[in-house]
Design a protein that fits this description.
single chain, 567 residues, alpha+beta, 7-stranded antiparallel sheet, 33% helix, globular, binds adenosine-5'-diphosphate, binds magnesium ion
Amino acid sequence: MGIGSCSSSINHGHIAFSNLSSFSSSSATHRRHYNPNYPSKFIHIFPREVAGFAQIPLRITGCQSMNSFSSSLPLSFGDSESIETEGSREEVVPKLFPAPLSISPLLLEKLVYDALVWSSLNGLVVGDKAVKKSGTIPGVGMVHAPFSLLPSALRESYWKQACDLTPIFNELVDRVSLDGEFLQNSLSRTKKVDAFTSRLLDIHSKMMEINKKEVIRLGLHRSDYMVDAETNLLLQIELNTISSSFPGLSCLVSNLHRYLLNQHGKELGLDSNSVPGNAAVRQFAEALAKAWTEYDNERAVVMFVGQPEERNMYDQHWLSFLLKEIHSVNTIRKTLSEIDAEGELLLDGSLAIGGQIVAVVYFRAGYSPNDYPSESEWDARLMIEQSTTIKCPSITYHLVGTKKIQQELAKPMVLERFLEAEEVAKLRKCFAGLWSLDDSEITKHAIERPELFVLKPQREGGGNNIYGDDLKEMLLKLQQEKIEEQAAYILMQRIFPTSSLSYLIREGISHENQAISELGIYGAYLRNNDKVIMNEQCGYLMRTKVSSSNEGGVAAGFAVLDSIYLT
Ligand code: ADP
Ligand code: MG
């Protein structure tokens, strides 16, 4: 099978329980929450073999590392995410690759220079936060998007597994979206304590009351995974059903890496053919264009809903550019407040903005409370939902992507309501431990061993999760003072991917550090009534994250765009 093709089914090998004592639960009610995917810290599973992700190990000749890595220090990633790594995992990395590479400082310099030129020439760019208008005026204040100099290694079996899961998750989202009662019931307690989820549910209830059915349904999703080093399992982090970012720039990073390996592959001992092709943006454009065709109004447009200031605008512009260029579909770009001011519902139910009928609304905003600073934005969201326009996503698809629903779907016998047994088995293999805070035994365990868990509120967009001591404190506080507010959170097993040496390029400067990667697989789903028009895996996003810590405090960490080197 060629690279980029993903249809084989994967056998993970045999996993068995040998000991359930670490949770010391004897009751069947608790036992059914155990998941064979938990590492031995949760339950003792067979010893690990090798882990899935790792940066291609580079042996630097005559070059000092810019950051020394202490395996026991907590590392922070991005704004708030924090991960602890264990040095012992390092030893498994070389098994993954043909051989550790040698890279001279001269070659490193050349690679970085070539990569920066390529990025500038090919639109691998974001707005520069140092320039005031960079989030509003295209072409003003651009800087290359942060990227990893070389792709990160990933075992082909994980890649195929993740690709294979995509159409199943696409279908799952659609089926769950049709079960309004399930969504309302699952989120009913969260609704009471989380104002944002509550507003989304209100819109959903209104649509249920008027029996509004979405006949044409479009989903542009991204399912994110990490490979747990201890169990060697590819585990899902989350499924994004709204505003799945980077379909545009991720394709460029794959091209960048292929270019660098074409130029310097011999010196590096790497083959550009091992970087899978990435057509995420073309396929997303195709899905939007096909949805537009289904709407069947030649003069209608596709509307991109953006934030008033958007430094990641080029990622979005790539998509609208391809819609125009390849599919001759016109696009417009509006904020929610502009939609409220300029939009109207016509008598036939269609949505018009400044006199133009909107065939498809593609949300790249609207996933966070910050996107609704006033009632105006909520009015716009409601107006869109009430209209006949195709929503990407509809309010139901949006709700299916919430973390609470992820946790509900992981409960025993829930997936079975929506999928066949074979599909259920495939999805379960990638489910990490997920619990509501009602589970007193797990909550107790999380208070004792906070480093093994992540506490997640119902938020999207990064920077919201709670780790370590903060997690412990929060759980204690919720237990003592704010019992109801427990419903605003879910607990998740913390996944520990293998870390390895990486070169992360930000603002023209190369940082050498230990890093971990998260794989995202894009999926497109388009359906008109009974006819599934598209249900496909659409390329990928690799993100690599790094941070440094020292005794005095925590240095700022960062994540960069990356691609995959299949091994
Ligand atoms: P968001 O909707 O904010 O993106 P995520 O669930 O994706 O929320 O969490 C944000 C980041 O936190 C992820 O990209 C990942 O790096 C980290 N993370 C989330 N869940 C886990 C987990 N269970 N184990 C380890 N890291 C996690
Ligand atoms: Mg995420």
